[in-house]
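Students often ask why inverse folding is considered easier than folding. One informal answer: many sequences map to the same fold, so there is more than one right answer. In these notes we will look at a single instance of the problem. The structure comes first.
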């Protein structure tokens, strides 16, 4: 269970007075004409004490299939980065669920750690915002837990390409010409590196992608920012936004300079925070829980990922409380 600060623990009672653990279950957004089925993990406030739950080689503190504690709760959707998955930010999801939020993290179809078959084409960047809209549709309508959710209190958290996804959902329109060559056709379903378009590809048209006004507040960490480098591209992003950048960078399309430029050109100025000594992948859940020998677990000397995530998660919870709970209370 995520340890909350005294102040946060005291204010927690405003929305979920008896919760002290994250319930966890696995769900699926049904497939249809607008896309394939979407696998997801869902965390929620729970009255039972958590235990260590094993998921493959991963261990997380949770109560499997715990009944949701509370009514009309805010909902947060989580979008992973390139090659990520729905448990890549589980500590943040747990912190939010402990604070009274329902949290749903998805695996973007054909572009997650288990299935990268379309991850290198531009098509996935077009489809990612659609995945989020479909997930919100499901959670607010046909989900068995729809009655537990307040449809006026929906937020979003995204990392890397997930941050890009959130910005599009919030109203941004990317310029794919700013990307390194992927596919000449923005609707392509796949473009392996060996068949990438030549750098002198034809200029791609600007696309107006899927936006969703039901998202009322958003946190994005080290987003793919190179496609949003003009005021016009982000002029319609008007919701409250907390933007995090890694001081040392290291993620494609999310250099510290690109993220800082994004913060500068947003008309509705974000709560912009730079994480000292953090690298791009430092925003992933603390290691050694996930593949301790992998690149995802390598941080810069002097950076304590576990300590950083305690503060990071507290800041995210406080932001969503301010904009989805306090700002919308009767």
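Output (designed amino acids):
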């Amino acid at each position: 269970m995520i340890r909350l600060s005294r102040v946060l623990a005291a204010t927690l009672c405003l929305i979920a007075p008896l919760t002290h653990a994250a319930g966890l279950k696995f769900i699926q957004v049904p497939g249809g004409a607008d896309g394939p089925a979407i696998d997801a993990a869902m965390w929620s406030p729970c009255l039972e004490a958590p235990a260590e739950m094993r998921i493959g080689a991963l261990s997380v503190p949770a109560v499997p299939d715990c009944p949701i504690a509370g009514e009309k709760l805010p909902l947060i959707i989580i979008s992973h980065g390139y090659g990520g998955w729905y448990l890549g930010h589980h500590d943040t999801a747990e912190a939010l669920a402990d604070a009274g939020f329902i949290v749903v993290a998805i695996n973007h179809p054909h572009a997650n750690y288990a299935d990268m078959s379309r991850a290198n084409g531009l098509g996935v960047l077009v489809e990612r915002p659609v995945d989020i809209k479909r997930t919100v549709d499901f959670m607010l309508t046909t989900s068995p837990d729809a009655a537990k959710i307040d449809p006026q209190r929906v937020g979003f958290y995204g990392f890397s390409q997930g941050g890009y996804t959130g910005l599009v959902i919030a109203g941004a329109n990317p310029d794919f010409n700013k990307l390194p060559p992927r596919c000449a056709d923005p609707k392509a379903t796949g473009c392996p590196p060996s068949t990438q378009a030549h750098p002198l590809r034809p200029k791609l048209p600007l696309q107006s992608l899927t936006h969703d006004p039901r998202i009322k507040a958003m946190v994005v960490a080290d987003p793919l920012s190179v496609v949003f480098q003009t005021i016009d591209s982000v002029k319609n992003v008007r919701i409250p936004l907390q933007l995090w950048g890694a001081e040392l960078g290291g993620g494609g399309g999310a250099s510290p300079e690109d993220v800082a430029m994004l913060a500068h050109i947003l008309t509705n100025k974000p709560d912009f925070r730079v994480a000292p000594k953090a690298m791009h992948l430092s925003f992933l859940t603390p290691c050694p829980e996930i593949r301790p020998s992998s690149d995802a677990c390598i941080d810069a000397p002097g950076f304590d990922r576990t300590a950083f995530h305690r503060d990071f998660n507290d800041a995210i919870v406080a932001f969503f409380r301010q904009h989805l709970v306090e700002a919308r209370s009767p």
